[in-house]
UniProtKB/TrEMBL annotation:
It comes from Mesorhizobium huakuii. Keywords: Signal. The keyword Signal applies. The lineage of its organism: Bacteria, Pseudomonadati, Pseudomonadota, Alphaproteobacteria, Hyphomicrobiales. This is DUF992 domain-containing protein. Residues 1-22 form the signal peptide.
């Protein structure tokens, strides 16, 4: 009877793993498409926000998500921005390009409709190399990209970037 119980448990674990992978695939696929929107960006916590207009093309497979686009602010300034994430089990990892410091490493996991990522900047920003990024699916046709960092003067978390995108 004991070998049967182990076999049954192994079968349940395989089914659960397959379901989790299927759920992640469906979630990732929901990001596919072209998106545009507006938001604000704050390069460091001691400068004012800049309003930006952005457009992105998003692609997804069963194990990856990529966002490629650009944001324009102050009429003449345009910056290419991209995030490329790979999924292994419940863990997300990848690279964010768009910071003035160079490519940043991303690591995290999904919670509900949001991918919560730790950022490791290529150089210090706001006194350290750490921040947080959230890629949140909002309804069928929306994405919110949010970056938070710690203000070195107050020690409080500050939203340094928030961009709301809608499928076009």
């Amino acid at each position: 009877m004991r070998p049967f119980a182990q076999f049954a448990l192994a079968g349940c674990l395989l089914v659960a793993a397959g379901t989790a992978h299927a759920d992640e695939t469906k979630f990732l696929q929901s990001f596919k498409g072209d998106f545009a929107g507006k938001g604000t960006v704050q390069v460091t916590t001691d400068v004012p926000n800049v309003s930006v207009s952005c457009s992105f093309k998003s692609n997804a497979t069963s194990t990856s998500l990529s966002l490629d686009g650009s944001c324009r602010g102050l009429v003449l300034v345009t910056r290419a921005i991209s995030a490329k994430l790979n999924v292994a089990g419940a863990k997300y990892s990848g690279v964010y390009v768009g910071s003035r410091t160079g490519p940043a490493q991303l690591n995290g996991s999904r919670s509900g409709n949001a991918i919560n990522l730790g950022i490791r900047w290529a150089q210090e920003v706001n006194g350290d190399r750490k921040a947080r990024m959230t890629v949140e699916k909002r309804g069928e046709n929306g994405i919110r990209l949010t970056v938070t960092d710690t203000d070195p003067k107050t020690g409080k978390n500050v939203v340094t970037s928030r961009i709301d995108l809608t499928r076009t």
